[in-house]
């Protein structure tokens, strides 16, 4: 890394040169200095299942960042990285306040009451947020929360003044409590859905996903589980009274790997299946999709960051098991409402040094290794996984590379965003990947990624038969230097005599604006030319100029070195 930074500091503006000028094309022979190659085989003629864009889901706490300059820029980039619609989930859409943004805070003032206690609805800020999404072809996961001050059973104190050096519990103020009047809450929900239909049209709003609250099994809900069930019943009745075709889900609980969290998710589903409905008195409540959260647990070990993907996959597996245990519900779409390496997006490096992974390629390789496995895991448990939200956006007017869990800083993209760009370039069904050395989910849960590198792949082939893509990652839990892995990628069932290979790369030296910023001396004041160069450094680059490879009997073998925490995407066309 030091030699790369020295090089970069000497000529940062050269980063704006065409990416095709960097390094060489995939070689036809392995590099002997790197040791035995990792053998990965891809059969383009063996589809194994669809590849819905599970990764095209993003979220954040602070809704007022949506229409700020860097927020709008990033949303445009997110909308552009996917051939289909990108979903956005955000908190605080009904929270009372003047629209001032702060860490883990936002507000819209959608609901107040006059002196006689009569509702006053004001959708000005809500509309500004949703207009920003709709203008970009994005689809909201419209979160019904949090509790307006005028409806809260414990309204004082209402707004928190949380900072990352304070206890997380201090954020759970008046907005987190049940309503004084469930019927007034239901009417608020009804009015919002009806307003949305009037503003955007029924056809548009039918494509949205509505949801109730966030993580009611922890401090975000200062009521009992039964009170949450009651709130859901009133919400469901209101949503579907306003728009019968609306899609409403829940409960957005977190941590199914914990016993109490698992019990909460299970209890909610039992209520929807066989509980007494608080509105109708009948049995059960309509539920259109199921949502829960999964989080990892990084820590600092001997001066370096060690990730823990095993904790995250423990949550996913246990959540899938719970869903699969309900025969009448296992067909419902499942959304991982937050799917992240840990739990606090607004906790930066200064207060949480374990979050140093967020700025560089470690976050990128972790994301590739995690999302790349979700398809097979959902098939294993026979659940209908529809999406997995990366709870990461941007933090307006914060220090450069402060270590928040974000996708960009000051309009400059971080390496992790390039993995989502890679996923967006893949098309067609998933095809068979043979990788004898790959880790299984059981290995990940047992922390095998701290013992050896996790070198894996995900591949697709276009149904038209003229393109294919292979995503390859070299991930390790420990953020330590190590030799690269030599990859021997065998492509089978290629229907042409030759194929054009485009090799995209994210690693310490490619698609890494953080390294470029460090090479400048880590400035907090960035000039115009530096800003432009950093923005260019944050884009997804080609590792080499596109190159043709020949096939023999429908087969080709590509050899390349993949650094620790590196991710490659190889796109083939013929």
From TrEMBL:
Domain of life the protein comes from: Bacteria
GO BP annotation list: carbohydrate metabolic process
GO terms assigned for molecular function: hydrolase activity, hydrolyzing O-glycosyl compounds
Keywords: Glycosidase, Hydrolase, Signal
Presence of keyword Hydrolase: yes
Active-site feature positions: 215 (proton donor)
Signal peptide region: 1-22
TM region(s), chain numbering: none
Glycosyl hydrolases family 39 N-terminal catalytic domain ranges (all copies): 40-537
Tagged with keyword Transcription regulation: no
Family according to the record: Belongs to the glycosyl hydrolase 39 family.
Name assigned to this protein: Beta-xylosidase
Species this protein is from: Hymenobacter coccineus
Taxonomy of the source species: Bacteria, Pseudomonadati, Bacteroidota, Cytophagia, Cytophagales
């Amino acid at each position: 890394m030091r030699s790369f930074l020295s090089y970069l500091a000497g000529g940062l503006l050269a980063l704006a040169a065409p990416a095709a000028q960097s390094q060489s094309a995939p070689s036809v022979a392995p590099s002997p200095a790197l040791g035995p190659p990792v053998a990965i085989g891809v059969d383009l003629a063996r589809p194994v299942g669809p590849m819905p864009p599970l990764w095209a889901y993003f979220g954040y706490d602070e809704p007022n960042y949506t229409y700020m300059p860097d927020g709008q820029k990033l949303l445009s980039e997110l909308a552009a990285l996917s051939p289909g619609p990108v979903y956005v989930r955000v908190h605080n859409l009904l929270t009372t306040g003047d629209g001032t943004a702060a860490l883990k805070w936002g507000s819209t003032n959608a609901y107040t009451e006059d002196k006689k206690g009569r509702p006053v609805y004001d959708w000005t800020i809500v509309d500004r947020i949703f207009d920003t999404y709709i203008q970009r072809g994005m689809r909201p996961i419209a979160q019904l929360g949090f509790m307006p001050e005028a409806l809260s059973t414990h309204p004082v104190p209402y707004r928190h003044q949380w900072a990352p050096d304070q206890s997380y519990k201090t954020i759970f103020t008046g907005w987190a409590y049940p309503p004084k009047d469930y019927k007034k809450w239901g009417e608020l929900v009804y009015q919002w859905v009806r307003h949305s239909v009037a503003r955007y049209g029924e056809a548009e709003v039918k494509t949205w996903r509505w949801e109730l609250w966030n993580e009611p099994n922890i401090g975000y809900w200062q009521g009992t589980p039964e009170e949450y069930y009651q709130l859901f019943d009133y919400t469901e009745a209101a949503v579907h009274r306003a728009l019968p075709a609306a899609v409403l889900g829940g409960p957005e609980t977190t941590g199914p790997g914990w016993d109490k969290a698992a019990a909460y998710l299970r209890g909610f589903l039992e209520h929807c299946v066989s509980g007494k409905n608080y509105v109708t008195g009948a049995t059960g409540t309509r539920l259109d999709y199921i949502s829960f959260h999964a989080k990892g647990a990084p820590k600092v070990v001997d001066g370096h960051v060690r990730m823990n993907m095993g904790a995250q996959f423990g949550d996913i597996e246990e959540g899938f098991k719970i869903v699969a245990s309900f025969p009448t519900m296992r067909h419902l779409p499942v959304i991982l409402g937050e799917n992240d390496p840990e739990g606090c997006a607004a906790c930066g490096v200064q207060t949480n040094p374990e979050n140093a992974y967020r700025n560089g390629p470690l976050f990128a390789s972790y994301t590739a290794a995690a999302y790349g496995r979700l398809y097979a895991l959902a098939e294993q448990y026979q659940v209908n996984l529809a999406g997995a939200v990366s709870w990461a956006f941007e933090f307006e007017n914060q220090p450069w590379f402060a270590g928040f869990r974000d996708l960009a800083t000051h309009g400059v993209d971080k390496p992790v965003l390039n993995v989502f760009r890679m996923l967006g370039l893949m098309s067609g069904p998933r095809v068979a990947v043979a990788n004898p050395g790959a880790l299984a989910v059981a290995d990940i849960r047992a922390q095998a990624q701290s013992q050896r590198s996790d070198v894996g792949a995900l591949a697709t082939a276009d149904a038209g038969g003229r393109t294919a893509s292979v995503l390859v990652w070299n991930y390790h839990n420990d953020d330590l230097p190590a030799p690269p892995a030599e990859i021997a990628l065998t492509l089978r069932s290629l229907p042409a005599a030759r194929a054009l290979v485009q090799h995209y790369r994210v690693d310490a030296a490619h698609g890494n604006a953080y390294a470029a910023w460090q090479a400048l001396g880590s400035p907090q004041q960035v000039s115009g030319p530096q800003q432009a160069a950093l923005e260019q450094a944050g884009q997804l680059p080609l590792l080499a100029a596109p190159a043709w490879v020949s096939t023999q009997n429908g087969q080709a073998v590509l050899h390349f070195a993949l650094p620790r925490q590196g991710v490659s995407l190889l796109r083939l066309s013929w």
